[in-house]
Amino acid sequence: GAEVVFSVDCTKLKEHFSPGKHEFDRIYFNFPHCGRKAGVVKNRELLACFFQSCAEVLAEQGEVHVALCNGQGGTPADQPRREWHNSWQIVAVAAGAGFVLSDVHPFKAETIHGYKCTGYRSQDKSFCVEGALNHIFTRSTPPPCLTPVSCKTQLGSQKVYFQVPQVLVDKINRGFLEVNSSHPVRTIKEKLSTGLSQAFPLHNISSCLPLLCQGHPEGVCHSDLFWIALSPGEAPSTEETSQGLPDAVWFPHFGQDTDRNGGEGCPIPKQFHLRPSLLPHARAIMQEGAFSPGTLHVLSGPVFRQCRITPHSMPVFHEMLLVLAVSRGTENSCIQMLVENIKTITSALHQAIAGVKPSISLQEATSFGAELSDFAAFECQLGEIQHFICLGTEPGSSGSCVGVTRTAPDELKSSELVVVSASLNLDLLAMLLCGISDWRMLWTSDRRFLQQFPEGELRLFKSFCLYPPSYVHDVSFWVPDGEEFDEVAFHTLARRVSGEMVVSIQLRDSFQQPGTGRRSLCYRVTFQSCDRALGCREAAEMQLRFREEIQQHLGVTLR
């Protein structure tokens, strides 16, 4: 009952199968080759045209299966693996047509009834299929079209509007912690809350916490915050802002900026920033006397911090803040009890997911020997830390910092009570527990991510975008005379221009010109997606836009 069509040009499938009439669920191409002694470049071109053609006749949820001889594909699945320039670079050419590699497995000719390999150098001869691989491609989600987003909020008696920073447009109001969400971040938060409620009376502070803070938190670098300009004519007076605590939190340490070297800069005008932590909200509630002694109060929500680009540094993540008012003199034992319960719950979760117990440690802040992650370093800026909570999922690993403990500042202590708190990064916990290697995957719009966590079930994550191609570009420039180069702003521009497609930025060279003293920097920028197709042409366009943006916004002179 099958229809067989001969003399089909694989680069012009639409000419043989009209898109309205045929939408294929599977397209198989076993061992494509241009014929005779065609080199790798011609065969890459063949594959590129083939994938472009497939995009016109493949169903939305369809698959393209391409079998290649061992080594041809150029992916880590090939053993031995060829050098990239000597391979067919199949993931890169497929990405150019909007496909991602979702699975790869051995090609077993003996399991295909009647299959015979032939065509070696366009002759009726067989070729070696030992070690051959079948590559399974699926459609990528299209590039996001990020339009500017404005948010409305109430400050005092006024309604005000602000523009969401471009790098956060696709991350604002995602609702990961909402009741109907099956996102692993919410599941972990609920599991922790349920477990902790067995040891403490627990109260979830579910009221809508304000996104905006006013003023400048003491000790925090100005460029680590997402500063917000209210719409013209909408800025409230100082009195209205400082009294509108349900809508914005006011920092008392306001007026002097702190630079990266700890020095004092010039006064900052009245400004707002997106909340970098839930601590100010907790302290505002404490000052109102709304915390019941002995009850564990839980605040949770997204927080926003400008940071450098690394696989574990995120400009937005979900914080879970646990706050407990205890009798003076018992604070250390209460922190130990709180952390022990967190360790027990987390260990049980990881054992259920991966089958092994993780390494969870509580390290004194004064003796923490590892290099601080961006998360831990920023927490240090927010106030004195007692302990770092570290989670390691690999044998012998010292672990990653996923949380901190601290006691409240002196002004919030009384003669009888001391407030202790633990702050947890739920996104980092989800990554480590579910085996997610890149934080960006937590924010993907691809439905295949959440399909792996049905009804909030926690599982080891299996990537649907294997071996994504990477593209390396260098950029060098002269820094403006007499100015300190803001590397965080440089990384933030890369995030914005690429739509989070930059996976790494490394300083390659720093040069000071003799005589003039002018300073030049050279950075290596690596573009790579974790969840969608990124072709070399698109990456090159991003690099060009990035070069234009750093000239315009950072005042550098390109070399």
TrEMBL record:
<dbReference type="GO" id="GO:0070475">
    <property type="term" value="P:rRNA base methylation"/>
</dbReference>
<feature type="domain" description="FDX-ACB">
    <location>
        <begin position="466"/>
        <end position="559"/>
    </location>
</feature>
<dbReference type="InterPro" id="IPR029063">
    <property type="entry name" value="SAM-dependent_MTases_sf"/>
</dbReference>
<dbReference type="InterPro" id="IPR045864">
    <property type="entry name" value="aa-tRNA-synth_II/BPL/LPL"/>
</dbReference>
<keyword id="KW-0809">Transit peptide</keyword>
<dbReference type="GO" id="GO:0005524">
    <property type="term" value="F:ATP binding"/>
</dbReference>
<dbReference type="InterPro" id="IPR005121">
    <property type="entry name" value="Fdx_antiC-bd"/>
</dbReference>
<dbReference type="GO" id="GO:0004826">
    <property type="term" value="F:phenylalanine-tRNA ligase activity"/>
</dbReference>
<protein>
    <recommendedName>
        <fullName>phenylalanine--tRNA ligase</fullName>
        <ecNumber>6.1.1.20</ecNumber>
    </recommendedName>
</protein>
<comment type="similarity">
    <text>Belongs to the class-II aminoacyl-tRNA synthetase family.</text>
</comment>
<dbReference type="InterPro" id="IPR036690">
    <property type="entry name" value="Fdx_antiC-bd_sf"/>
</dbReference>
<dbReference type="GO" id="GO:0070042">
    <property type="term" value="F:rRNA (uridine-N3-)-methyltransferase activity"/>
</dbReference>
<keyword id="KW-0067">ATP-binding</keyword>
<keyword id="KW-0436">Ligase</keyword>
<dbReference type="Pfam" id="PF03147">
    <property type="entry name" value="FDX-ACB"/>
</dbReference>
<dbReference type="Pfam" id="PF10354">
    <property type="entry name" value="BMT5-like"/>
</dbReference>
<dbReference type="InterPro" id="IPR019446">
    <property type="entry name" value="BMT5-like"/>
</dbReference>
<dbReference type="GO" id="GO:0005759">
    <property type="term" value="C:mitochondrial matrix"/>
</dbReference>
<dbReference type="GO" id="GO:0006412">
    <property type="term" value="P:translation"/>
</dbReference>
<keyword id="KW-0648">Protein biosynthesis</keyword>
<keyword id="KW-0030">Aminoacyl-tRNA synthetase</keyword>
<keyword id="KW-0547">Nucleotide-binding</keyword>
<keyword id="KW-0496">Mitochondrion</keyword>
